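Deliverable D5.2: sample structural annotation.
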Amino acid sequence: MKTNKTHNPWLWIPVLCAAEEIPSAVVMFVSLIMFLQFGANDSWAAFYSGLLFLPWVTKSYVHSKVKGAGAYKRYLHLSELLIFLCLMGVAIYILQSAASVWLLFVFMFVLSCLCAWHELLSRMYYSRMLYPREQRLFTNTKMLASQSTLVVTYGVLIIIAGFFEVFFRSYQKAWAMESSLVAGVFLALFALNFFTLHPLHVSHHYYHESFASTVKHEISSFARFREKHHVMPVLISLFFLLLPQALMFNTRVFFLFAEVDKGGLGCSVQDVGFAQGTIGVLAFSIGIALGHALTKKHGFVKMFWPTAIVLTLSPFSYMLMSQHPQVDNLFLLCMVTFFAQFCFGFGLNVCRSFVTFISGQRYRNTTNFLYVPLVNSLMIVPMALSGWLSSVLGYQLFFVACSCLAPLSWLILKIYHTKTILNEQLASAGT
């Protein structure tokens, strides 16, 4: 049972979303650039970046444990304090002259675990403080706060880091200053959350069970999902739809940073921050919002093929750019990035119909908690291997190969569709 005493949700919802997105952006996007600048080659940088998504894959196994704990506010404050300490630890460590990529990865992996924990706690707190109809009211507020924070963290802060590098003439001092700045902003959000988040006004019986019991319970749930008819063909179809985006997730940044004589564009940190972190995030947000609106208006069945096709179009833009590089043309770079990220955001809406089918009618309430782990689990291996593959093939051939995967994914999807596998999935998703 919930109550309306939410203590001004117009204040605490944006602050909570901002506190959720800042460290997540550091883990998912900023860390890749840090790995490159601290000496990792493309293969190792992609491998480290892929491993950072593991906590987001495995977080569903502790979902029941977090849900049963109950003291969401207390654990939220604890996780935010640990995130602040981790960010400060990164800032202090990278000032060391012997700072290594391996230990930097360890810091980032710990931060990724804390982010996944914080995201679960935030979702639980949000669902307990608001009625379902109130949650729908604040959906746009959450999205605006999250995407705005992502633009500032991934875009503006990377641009600032580039200026710091020029000013200090040292990438270590630049990233130490940038990490300290992020930690300071996060500390301010932690203070706001400390005063704006209030204990849950609910009457709910919380249960406590061991971690082993929680994992066993979640594994049994996934075992029930595997018993569904045609679940493997559906997963294979989704894997091939996501494969081009997974392969490009890191390599597009490598391509921008690489020297011109190595097939890249030789962009600066500021260029990458503006194109990928600002224009790219805005395009992704517009794409996912437009795709969601059209899917809600026309339904999963009518929008399935348009979203599935658009999802795989991003590699074509980078293929053309690698074949006809325009060095120092920031406008063209932004246009290509906008198109690629818009396609990613718009097409990503197709994944929800797959997840809804897998979770089924009986477990429909698990859809939101299954969505991110499932999508990440299908993308994590290609993401980790993409750096090595691009090093072997070269950027031109790599983007050609990614583009060729698009019609292959359509063919696989069409084969399963004609066998009524996806017809059942669409019927389940559309109900």
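Annotation notes: The chain has 18 helices and no strands. The domain at 221-431 is CATH 1.20.1250.20 (Growth Hormone; Chain: A;).
The annotation will be released with the project's public dataset once the embargo ends.
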